[in-house]
Amino acid sequence: xxxxxAVFGNPIEHSxxxxxxxAFAAQFGVDMAYTRQLVPAGGFDAAxxxxxxxxxxxxxxxxxxxxxxxxxxxxxxxxAKRAGAVNTLALQTGRAVLGDNTDGGGLVxxxxxxxxxxxxxxRVLILGAGGAVRGxxxxxxxxxxxxxxxxxxxxxxAQQLVEEFAxxxxxxxxxxxxxxxxxxxxxVINGTSASLEGDLPPLPDSLLARNAHCYDLMYGAAPTVFMxxxxxxxxxxxxxxxxxxxxxxxxxxxLWRGLRPATKPVIAALRASLK
Length: 275
Ligand code: ATR
Prior knowledge:
Blueprint: E1 3-9, H1 17-28, E2 32-38, H2 44-53, E3 58-61, H3 66-72, E4 75-76, H4 78-83, E5 88-91, E6 97-100, H5 103-114, E7 123-127, H6 131-141, E8 147-152, H7 155-165, E9 171-175, E10 185-190, E11 208-216, H8 225-232, E12 237-239, H9 242-257, H10 264-274
Helix pairs in contact: 1-9, 5-6, 5-9
The structure holds 2'-monophosphoadenosine-5'-diphosphate (ATR).
2'-monophosphoadenosine-5'-diphosphate (ATR) binds next to helix 6.
């Protein structure tokens, strides 16, 4: 019998998750159907209930429903609990639905395994303090950066995150306008959605240390504004979030099926299809 999975979001038409999971399933000969579903605002619970009652096995959840999915889950992994957001729901025995957040794990695997960038003992700056950043903080802190600094346009949002996550590691915040006062960073991760509008927080020329690495959680056919800024300011390595997208999907697939797909060929195929 075909096992059913889906991704819920709004908008959803540009989601690459169906092709990623179809590629994973093909690696193992798993009989899986994975669809996109446009869920209306306020309609998450009804749609998810229908999906699981109708025999669905697992969901990915994207903007703007990750908090709804968090509330919908009957059990949560520790990292989902900390993130306050769920991107993966898995039907378990009985009627239990486990909620996990694989975004941060996906980022860390992309950084450390695919790109071979280490976070350990590095001075790391994260730009932004929205949902995307909340989802990556715990896995990033687990890599033991020497210092992790969050800079956000709205300072209070960064302060809130620092309060919540400070018990997990060396974490502090700074206003975007005060970045120039700090020692340069070994790694900068752009977690703002500014690149969507072709925008960038105002960054000082002195931001990057020698040999700095820069990562944008966003991805696209062309380098993002942040990636271009990084290249122009001496970064030795620059990457976008396509690898994170595939790795978070692989983590979801593992949760659902107990199988670890090979991600490199899927990243390469997706990259080629963007061109
Ligand atoms: P996401 O789920 O993608 O994180 P979000 O929760 O709306 O979306 O967060 C967007 C992040 O990008 C926020 O940190 C936001 O800054 P504010 O908290 O000050 O709103 C940041 N952001 C968006 N557009 C920006 C811009 N043009 N310049 C700087 N920061 C921007």
